[in-house]
Automatic annotation (TrEMBL), chain A:
Keywords: ATP-binding, Nucleotide-binding, Transport. Signal peptide: none annotated. GO terms for molecular function: ATP binding; ATP hydrolysis activity. This is ABC transporter ATP-binding protein. The keyword Metal-binding does not apply. It comes from Actinoplanes auranticolor.
Automatic annotation (TrEMBL), chain B:
Keywords: ATP-binding, Cell membrane, Ion transport, Membrane, Nickel, Nickel transport, Nucleotide-binding, Translocase, Transport. Residues 11-257 form the ABC transporter domain. Its EC number is 7.2.2.11. SMART domains: AAA (SM00382). It is found in: Cell membrane. This is Nickel import system ATP-binding protein NikD. It comes from the Bacteria. It catalyses: Ni(2+)(out) + ATP + H2O = Ni(2+)(in) + ADP + phosphate + H(+). The complex is composed of two ATP-binding proteins (NikD and NikE), two transmembrane proteins (NikB and NikC) and a solute-binding protein (NikA). It comes from Actinoplanes auranticolor. InterPro entries: AAA+_ATPase (IPR003593), ABC_Ni/Peptide_Import (IPR050388), ABC_transporter-like_ATP-bd (IPR003439), Oligopep_ABC_C (IPR013563), P-loop_NTPase (IPR027417). SUPFAM superfamilies: P-loop containing nucleoside triphosphate hydrolases. One of its GO terms (molecular function) is ATP hydrolysis activity. GO terms for cellular component: plasma membrane.
Length: 219, 315
């Protein structure tokens, strides 16, 4: 279980999160909603160990994690995968889709990288002809699938999705959701989805949290 | 939603085709589009990303890059003789069409706003250029859900949703008879999506026309009078909205609606084809559960669905 407890974050003088807590167990899908600017993305970035909160702790299976980004041991960081809203902003435009997927594997100096990339690409339904292309030559949906394959690279126990299908058409959204659900069932992963769409929330999440209602202790 | 029979058309698009020449390929971006838009009509153009929806809008405004080859006609009616948007001189488009007779809500507002001016200055400048009092800025902004204080911010100080609403306000300020809204609700949360859609609907109820380009089928269902579904550069189904959402007839349109989370939430098997290498015949046939031998021949839009085996026709 990944838990955030008493998370407080301020940007300048504006406090966007004030003592917020939530937990995500393996195997469950939690939906997080709240109005624009309520701090949903910020909370997700804190959980992903990308943003250091002013107060509060993130812990996995009861062990508190200190630090963010590269100061956290790789074995801990790789237990969490993230899928962002805009694949264009989340992918290096100079790299081919295969290289985008391979990046986390190369950083970890893994062997058998090309076989693993082919395997990951197959999981998200990307064909070989797409893998040699760079982001400008594929659609948003195809690029988001590459970003999803990249998020799966180290087989994370928790996957955090920040409006990851908002800009996609219905068919691509359903495909991404299906791929994530298959992964979740194979690896007993916990999935957090942030979305504005009530229909998507109802269909996809096991339970729904409203950011405004989150108490100062974990639930 | 009312579907009144109208005899006049505001925009008549006939056999509109757009090709992009690349060094080693030709992109079939838009193929043989025939669409008529009447005053008061809200037409939603829906489809997957990369199907040619935005190119269609840009072709109508003469905003395509130099490697584009455009054929067909797009007659814009109004006072005086109709203008063919596809052959009109760029000076005419710039002086009398863009903004004035056809407004555009661009897809990425962040790149459409002048970064060194506040929203108020941008909006007042537009109002003044179109002979409206500057004092109306607050009213126009309020119509899209922006407060007077929001207007005093610079574009970089706006959230994505606020920038989107400012771009919409700028397009509405000249009160154009035809508005092209290219994904005007992307980045907005549901209450703001609905508010923006209601603004567009209101315009149509007052006699203006709107072409809403969107991937959001729920948005189209909320406000559209008619829906055109594009797949791989062509319109495959074009029908009144109520009938379309109750029972789509093209297998692609059916599959697209079935992908919605409040319907089957089922993805469409396979991939959309590359616009540089479209298959002969129906482009959806490789993914279509109803495909047969005759699908190797391109079906025409007769009268409102381009399919040899439309849903509802089979025994």
């Amino acid at each position: 279980m990944i838990t955030a407890e008493g998370i407080t974050v301020a940007y300048g003088r504006r406090r966007v999160l004030d003592g917020v807590s939530l937990s995500l167990a393996r195997g469950e899908t939690v939906g997080l909603r709240g109005p624009s600017g309520a701090g949903k993305s910020t909370l997700l970035r804190v959980l992903a160990l990308l943003h250091r909160p002013a107060a509060g702790t993130v812990s996995i299976d009861g062990t508190a994690i200190t630090g963010t980004r590269y100061t956290v041991p790789a074995a801990v960081r790789t237990r969490i995968g993230v899928l962002f809203q805009s694949p264009r902003a989340a992918a290096d435009p100079r790299l081919s889709l295969a290289d985008i997927i391979a990046e986390p594997l190369r950083v970890a100096r893994r062997s058998d990288i090309s076989a693993r990339v082919a395997d990951l690409a197959d999981t998200v339904g990307l064909t070989a002809d797409l893998l040699s292309r760079r982001p400008h030559a594929v659609s948003d949906g195809q690029l988001q699938r590459a970003c999803l394959a990249r998020a799966f690279a180290h087989t994370p126990d928790y996957l955090l999705c920040d409006e990851a299908t908002t800009m996609l058409d219905a068919a691509t959204q359903a495909l991404i959701a299906t791929v994530i659900t298959d992964y979740q069932q194979r690896h007993n992963a916990g999935v957090l989805i942030v979305t504005h769409d009530p229909a998507l929330m109802t269909r996809w999440a096991d339970r729904t949290l409203d950011l405004a209602d989150l108490p100062a202790t974990a639930r | 939603m009312t579907t009144t029979v109208r005899t006049s058309s505001l925009l008549a698009i006939s056999d509109l085709t757009v090709r992009f020449r690349l060094p080693d390929a030709t992109v079939h971006a838009v193929t043989g589009i025939d669409v008529t838009v009447a005053p008061g009509e809200l037409l939603a153009v829906v489809g997957e990303s990369g199907c040619g929806k935005s190119v269609l809008a840009h072709a109508l405004l003469g905003l395509l890059p130099a490697n584009a080859a455009v054929t067909g006609t797009a007659l814009l009616h109004g006072d005086g003789a109709p203008i063919d948007l596809l052959t009109a001189d760029d000076k005419i488009l710039a002086r009398s069409v863009r903004g004035r007779r056809i407004g555009l809500v661009p897809q990425s507002p962040a790149t459409a706003l002048t970064p060194v001016r506040t929203g108020r200055r941008l909006l007042e400048e537009t109002l003044r250029a179109h002979g409206r009092p500057r004092a109306e800025a607050d009213t126009v902004a309020a119509g899209v859900g922006l407060t007077p204080a929001d207007l005093d911010l610079y574009p970089h100080e706006l959230s994505g949703g606020m920038a989107q609403r400012l771009a919409t306000a700028l397009a509405l300020a000249p009160d154009p008879p035809l508005l092209l809204a290219d994904e005007p609700t992307s980045g907005l949360d549901r209450p703001l999506v609905d508010a923006t859609l209601d603004v567009l609907r209101q315009r149509c109820d007052n006699g203006a026309a709107v072409i809403l380009i969107t991937h959001d089928l729920a948005a189209a269902q909320r406000v559209a009078d008619s829906v055109a579904v594009m797949y791989a550069s062509r319109i495959v189904e074009h029908r009144p909205a109520a009938g379309f959402f109750a029972g789509p007839r093209h297998p692609y349109a059916h599959a697209l609606l079935d992908a919605l989370p409040d319907r089957a939430f089922a993805p469409i098997p396979g991939h959309p084809p590359m616009l540089t290498a479209l298959p002969a015949g129906c482009a959806f046939a490789p993914r279509c559960p109803h495909a047969a031998d005759d699908c190797g021949i391109q079906p025409g839009l007769h009268p409102d669905v381009a399919c040899h085996h439309p849903i509802g026709d089979r025994p």
